[in-house]
Amino acid sequence: MDCEIISVGTELLLGQIANTDAQYISQRLSELGINVYYHTVVGDNKQRLLDALDVAVKRADLIITTGGLGPTVDDLTKETVAEFLGLELQMHEPSLQHIKEHFNRTGRQVSDNNIKQALLPKGSIPIPNPNGTAPGVIIEHEKGIFIVLPGPPLELQPMFEETVVPFLQKCSDYTIVSKVIRIFGIGESKVEEMVKDLLDEQDNPTIAPLVGHGDVTLRITARVRKGEDAYALINPVERQIKQRLGDAVYGVDDDTLSKVVSRMLIERELKLALAESCTGGLISDKLTDVPGISMVFDRGLVTYSNEAKMELLGVSSDTLNRFGAVSPQTAEEMALGALAHSHADVALAVTGIAGPDGGTLSKPVGLVYMAIADSYGAYSSKHVFNGDRRRIKEIAALTALNLLRLHLLKNND
């Protein structure tokens, strides 16, 4: 089955909101073995939507629309789809009752334009909307299968999972399964070079390199008939990739560096202290997004000024005067100070120049030093990152987490 997604909304064309609905639906359809070959975005205009539908039925068996189901005059998707298919609209009493109950709960009166949301194309399958007033519909027609959904993700996603997925599972004999290999510390071109023969020979499963936010991913995708084991195809390829890339592979699927580092600390029962300067608490923020991190995260200090580095971490004024705040010596003293002034087993420190000002020829914008300290002492590493202030902070935080990950791996061995 081939699908086209038609997203309706002038706000999408103006760039006022991102089209996350199409991304979500495409991901879910791929898992159901349904191909998505086209994304179309059209404004709140009846004729242009009719034109888009006319094109879509010539190249897809399944057309999914999102948006345009609200109560206002420019919400016209359902009416336009019904007109395109030659179907009259009829009042659906259960949907009308749901709308009335929704308004009663909030102490408001139901208006005529809300009542029109309960008008559904004749012969359609209603899609209940537990989080809003606009029901969706499934229409099985000689021109194809049409699924009409509202735009707000908090409404669309539960409707898709509870009603659309069970319906579509009956329509496909295949399923598509993907596994994502997550890599840090090697650029996309180098990764591609290291697995080039696998990319050249790919058939089923396929391998797709993708660049993320600081990391690189390889997505392995297998297509199998229902009941067959997709991982029998995926696992051998995954093993080859991990063997070639080694410790640069930090996780799979939904793993993040913060999740992986947190898991490693918890498994080893090691407490962590952080001392951040240029990252401004970003590393602490990433770690504290992980449930359970309180078991091992002792403390995080943002020591932005030289005075804070001296007062809270014990960095010596001599070190700061001789080498500066952005230096391997200061980074190591920050890490040692965080370790000494905490109950941690390992400490991580970061200091650098995020820009756009403050750089010199010898210490350019993007220069960052990181250090790790434990009971054996401290060591530092030098990095130079490109980009604006936000990107330098982000990539520095991720690189620091990766440095800690590699340190924990090495110590575990």
UniProtKB/TrEMBL annotation:
Signal peptide region: none
Domain (MoaB/Mog) ranges: 4-171
Pfam families: CinA (PF02464), CinA_KH (PF18146), MoCF_biosynth (PF00994)
Record family assignment: Belongs to the CinA family.
UniProt xrefs under NCBIfam families: cinA_nterm, molyb_syn, PncC_domain, PRK00549.1
UniProt name for this protein: Putative competence-damage inducible protein
Lineage of producing organism: Bacteria, Bacillati, Bacillota, Clostridia, Thermoanaerobacterales
